[in-house]
Amino acid sequence: MPSPADASPVDGSEPVNGSEGEQTYRKTTPTGPTDPVLGTPSDDFRLGDEPETPPADDFDFLLKKEPAQSDDAIQQIETPSELKRQQEQPAPADEADPFGDVLEDPPADESSSVEPFGNPMTEPVEPADNSAAPLTIPPTKEPLPAGKLFENTKVPELNDVELLRTPEVTPLPDESTRLLEEPVETFKVSPESNSTTPGDSSGPLLEFNSSSLRDDIALKVVSRERSQVGSGTLFEVYVTNKSTEILRDLTLKAAFHHALFIPNRDGDELTRAISRLDPGEELKIPLTLFSEQEGYHCVRFSLLNAAREELNWKSTCVTYISETLRSTLKGPETISVDATAIYTLLVENLSDKVIEHVSVNLRYDPVLKFLGSNQSVQEGEQELLVSMPRLQAGEVVPVRLAFRGEKGSENTSLTVSTMADNLPATESGIYLAVQQTKGALDLDVEQSWDVFRNGGESEITLICRNRGLDTLRGSRLIVDLPEHVQLIQSGWGAERSTTTADSLTNGNGRLELSVPDIPPGISARYVLKLRGTEAGDSPVQVVYQNPSSAPGELMRSFPLVVVD
After folding, report:
1. What would the pLDDT profile of 381-401 be if each residue is shown by its tens digit?
2. How far is CA 352 from CA 214, 227, 231, 349, 392, in A?
3. What is the three-class DSSP state of 511?
4. Stretch among 31-35, 341-345, 380-384 having the lowest mean pLDDT
5. Among candidates 525, 450, 511, which has minimal Cα distance to 481?
6. 430 and 467 part of one domain
7. Domain of 90?
8. Which of 142, 361, 380, 394 has the maximum number of C-beta atoms within 10 A of its C-beta?
9. Tally of domains within the chain
10. Do 284 and 375 belong together in one domain?
11. Does 222 share its domain with 339?
């Protein structure tokens, strides 16, 4: 425990006579006006080896304890305060114990100006020398005006400060330079020099690189730079949580120009809810957009929290050029499990020049099984590759592909990607449902794998099955034939006749047929022999009905592709 001898004054107090090496301090500074800036000086004492508080400029009357020296040395010290210059301090008479001595009252007959020792914190102490000069308080500085508190602060010149500058966006030099109508902060950006000049090019774009509002939530978009008109462009959006917190109730929003669209859906904005994203988790969200307009079209992806605040965003653009190479897949949109479906892939050269090294990649889901094709096809894992050394100007190459439904699925797909030298890849495809049989009625369609050409003939077989436990009686079959084909003859099983064909106007239209009785597990086949009268791909509509079955009706539709 530090001794009183080691204590030093921290306010305007003066020493009281004691033994040598011992000093007792009393507070002599009267209460003055409170400084509005610096406040009231502290009354706390500093004892022992506690560090000194740096002297303040406005408290010149505070004494700083100096090391014990001789009387002559004390008189020679030049103190900074007015109080020190007006009052001399007598040296202690006796040596003190290192831990301090207890102060006792002096004898009554001994004259001394020192009053009996009391509490120096609360009792006032009279001056030691009655003849000493009266105590005066140095004037307290007035507070500086608020405008001059920092007048001595040195501010560097502006040219000495390193400023962060954002990259400038240079608008197009022509009259098409304008702000976009969409609610985004952007100018139109010039497309790459080797791309087609856009006609009406716009879209929500600020720059190609994303500007993160939160660095720990990453947003990345992968897509190709060029596409052909009529083709779909796949945007793969990657959302990564780089933080240590679980993110909940996020929303990914895609805003795009009206030149981009999703088939069979209106609007220029899509949202996808993300209920939860764990730390370190990455989520991949695909989006395919189509366009029928040439130009430079952009999409802005933004990630929002539950309060609809934007956490991150990314813009990307695609240049759409005139359609040169087209791939179209035609086939049924609904088939049954264990049923066979024929799809026709049409690869067309729409230009007036030869296109070389054409390759078509077709990917299919595991619920389908590939059966065969009318052309040489290289098989891979859930994909097919069709190669064509060249396509002449205006040439159309049909490829017939047969699949069978293996398992039920309401949302499966066949996706086609077509590539050629010096051309952007094109994307197309078809969605279909593979349905499990419900009830006794089941309908299947068989077609020839050969290409159905204009002026040629082809056969279609409609297979009516009984999946129930009882014999189906009184069933009906309704067939609507499109205008680009003509019925030549038809019949159940091996029978063939022209009776039904003669009843039709121009050999097409609606057929209403009575189905023979079908025992359980048995099927009845109706064969139609058709002739192509013109190129087309209108569908054949077939309805299989039985009033005693549940459900009592089953419908199938498939395009009948005829090429020149």
Report:
1. 899 999 999 999 999 999 999
2. 51, 19, 19, 8, 8
3. strand
4. 31-35
5. 511
6. no
7. 1-146
8. 361
9. 4
10. no
11. no
